[in-house]
C-alpha cells in the first residue's frame, strides 16, 4: 500500500469519530444545604453552583483543588480537570458539606 493511501484512510477514520460532550451539572445552595450532596461527574464536565440564599457561600475543596466564592443570589462555574473524589464545604457555614466523584 502506498504511504499516501494509508494517510487518506487515517483521515477518513478520524473524521468519523464521534466527539464526547461534556455535561453541565447544577448544584444548588439554599437554606444552608448543598443539593445534591453527592454528585458523579467526569473530567471535562462543568459544575455550576447556584446560590439561592441571601448570604454568600463557598465551594471549598478539602484537598485544595478549588475554592469558589458565590455571592448571594449568584452562580459560579468550574470545569473539572482531574479524576478523584473531592469533598468540599462552605467556609462560611462548615456544616454545608458535599462530595464530587470525578471519573476520568
UniProtKB/TrEMBL annotation:
Domain annotation EfeO-type cupredoxin-like: ranges: 10-100
Highest taxon of the lineage: Bacteria
InterPro entries for the chain: Amicyanin, Cupredoxin, EfeO_Cupredoxin, ET_Amicyanin
Gene3D superfamilies: Cupredoxins - blue copper proteins
Keywords: Signal
Signal peptide interval: 1-22
SUPFAM superfamilies: Cupredoxins
One Pfam family cited in the UniProt record for this chain: Cupredoxin_1
Name under which the protein is recorded: Cupredoxin family copper-binding protein
Species of the source: Bradyrhizobium zhengyangense
Source species taxonomy: Bacteria, Pseudomonadati, Pseudomonadota, Alphaproteobacteria, Hyphomicrobiales
Amino acid at each position: 500500500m502506498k504511504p499516501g493511501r494509508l494517510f487518506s484512510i487515517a483521515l477518513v477514520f478520524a473524521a468519523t469519530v464521534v466527539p464526547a460532550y461534556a455535561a453541565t451539572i447544577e448544584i444548588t445552595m439554599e437554606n444552608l444545604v448543598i443539593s445534591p450532596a453527592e454528585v458523579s461527574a467526569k473530567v471535562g464536565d462543568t459544575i455550576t453552583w447556584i446560590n439561592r440564599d441571601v448570604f454568600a457561600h463557598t465551594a471549598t475543596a478539602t484537598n485544595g483543588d478549588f475554592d469558589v466564592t458565590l455571592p448571594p443570589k449568584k452562580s459560579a462555574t468550574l470545569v473539572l480537570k482531574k479524576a478523584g473524589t473531592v469533598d468540599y464545604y462552605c467556609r462560611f457555614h462548615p456544616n454545608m458539606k458535599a462530595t464530587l466523584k470525578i471519573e476520568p
